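Onboarding guide, step 5: your first structure request.
Type a short instruction followed by the sequence, for example:

Predict the 3D structure of this protein.
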Amino acid sequence: IVGNGSLEMELREYVKEHHMNNKVTFAGYVEDERLPLYFKQCDVFVLASTARSEAFGLVQIEAMSYGKPVINTALKSGVPYVSLHEKTGLTVEPGNVKSMEQAIRWMVEHPKEREEMGRSARIRVKKEFGLDDMLAQMHQMRKLGPLSGIMKMIPGMPKMPEVNDEETDRKLKQTEAIIYSMTQEERKNPSILNAKRKERIAK
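The system replies with structure tokens like these:
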């Protein structure tokens, strides 16, 4: 588990109580320069977000670029559009722990299918999610109206809870601002960004 937060101590206690210390490793805070190592080492990337304001989940694009399948949640946003159910990963209902468990277990028990999803994920990122392309897509989406209405137009999109369009639009604008603040070279190859540069961009 990479990162820290309000649930860290609770998770550590859970792991200890259930004698899982030999199965779960807490990496804590990891600097941006070292994150690629963790992306490369993992078999599956899990984006277990329940926040309806999660516009795209850009971190899953980063994982996909390393050829990793994604387990994401069916938020009423662009998250399930980025990684497609049963093509580049699996999508489960937000907050459904049982479904998440089943998805992770499926990935573990089906290595060939998992690796194929990872290959498809990498191809999808290269084909669909260059940062300039993302900007164009976000602009087009906003022209079409509220995101909640747009998601209903996407074939095969699962039924999801109502979304706060105002908050989602704010997140989209924030994402656009971040990309606009990057140079053309950085947009083409985000991996060249170091931690300090990423921090300045995020501000």
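Each response can be followed by summary notes, for example: The first helix runs from residue 8 to 17.
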